[in-house]
Amino acid sequence: MLAHTMLGLALLAQPLFAATTVTVELEDFSSVNTFAPFTVVSDSTASGGQHIVWPTSGNSQTNPDSSTSGSIAIGFLLTETATVSLQARVDLPEATDDSFYYKLDSGSWNTQNDQTTSGWSSMTLSSFSSVAAGGHTLVIKAREDGAKLDSITITVSAGTISRTLPDSYEDGNLLAFPGAEGLGRFASGGRGGSVYRVTNLNDAGSGSFRDAISSSNRIIVFAVAGVIKIESRLVFKSKLTVLGQTAPGGGITIYGDGSSFSGASNCIIRYIRIRMGRGGASGKDTISIADGNTIIFDHVSLSWGRDANFDLNPSSGKTIHSITLQDSIVAQGLQTHSTGGIILTEGTSVIRTLWTDNNSRNPKARGKLQFVNNVIFNWVVSAYILGDTTGRSDGIMQGNYFIAGPESGGGTLKSPTSAYHIYATGNYYDSDKDGNLDGRLLGEGDFGSATWESSPSFTAPSVPVLSAQAALTYVLANSGCSKWRDEVDDYLMDEVKSYGTDGETISNENELGLTNNVGIVPAGTAITDSDSDGMPDSWETANGLNPNSADALQDANNNGWLNIEEYANSLL
Which of 265, 475, 543, 553 has a CA-to-CA distance to 398 between 20 and 30 Å? Predict the structure, then answer.
């Protein structure tokens, strides 16, 4: 029920304040992960006795989307649609060097630049018209050093504004969906765009999945289920939400080639299977990202890559950051180059995911990687590669279980160097392949020459950490496209549950012996959807919506998630 999955205004906690104007002291955000390198300075002339400043070091951010550092997210709630006006109390000594960015929700960045003040002054910023009732986020981000920022005042033209937000928000930012975690958890996807209904299993053309992902700003739902056989790679655009759980029957399997998210940002990908296969492009990956940020993959099953299954490897001059892979499966990269993948980014979280039957790179970790509660099974040459480079990398490794399979010959924690800084707790290794789960705790000595840290060496969001044993149980029951597990994922889970006696890498997907290589995916029964907005009549009626009016893009209970998202969330 909608009332159970999102908080209506009447159910919100008592607001911190509710009026037509609120003033926010920016130093109050100093404990938030993205605050640094802003610093707090004591100042008796500042309104709260302190101000914040970007350190004077000659640094600047010319692309506000290139990093999450130096940003403040101010969440607020409106009771009515209104014009939102902004004023900032600032001290800008130099017009050419003191500036900052700001934006509302997922809108475009505004730049405050080329103005000076004589000491502290109240500066009028842009206004935003027709801002809907509900939760919103104002983001302030540093641009050039020297700007002193004291406070932000937000004024609304109608209704009231308060700083209390529904539990769909964290640190003032709207979560991608309930249970979104890690560095990609704030991806906004196609929210604010249109709904696209996939109505056939064709490789291309109107109503196909390929057509659905060909334009940005879409929330994609499915009126069909089954196998989409593709003849060439899929290229995902930015600002897409793929809600695979809306498919009837056994859901969606994409088979025949891989996919690219290079150049994409702000994507939410949930409950689909991408199985590349021997017929896919040689030397390519099931999923590859060479340039992109703020993407969350949730309950996806990835297999049969001809190079890698999940490869995050930036092209020259590009960066990748704010990626999450959670509750997923990365499996059976095809020999002779069978790999889980490289993860070389400025910030990725991999959480509660199964890595199995990949020859090596489970994963190869460079840059900054948060690796929590994963299960790694039946690697051949290497499981987790600790950088294998002289360049600095940082890892957080908590509650993972490494289980040797029939082909595992060592390399559990491979190629460590002192350049790899690792914070590791609660990780287990079962090496004996005897059919019993009886692993031992991995300690500092198991990480070789890697630099051992007593606390995380980079900032990552808090994630609930299960014991390695509990993580294994969870992954076996829930990982991958598990709303309906297909025969491939069942096959993989049975291997893992052998605890070392069964499992093998493959060079061709036909070695599994399944019908059409991917097994049978039942079509199920399509929903009755009179207004074709992606939500079934019965659900709309039960939740007080009109089944004869396309209202999928409205936010009935004002918590930030649209009605179509609420419906998709209710299926899980």
Answer: 265
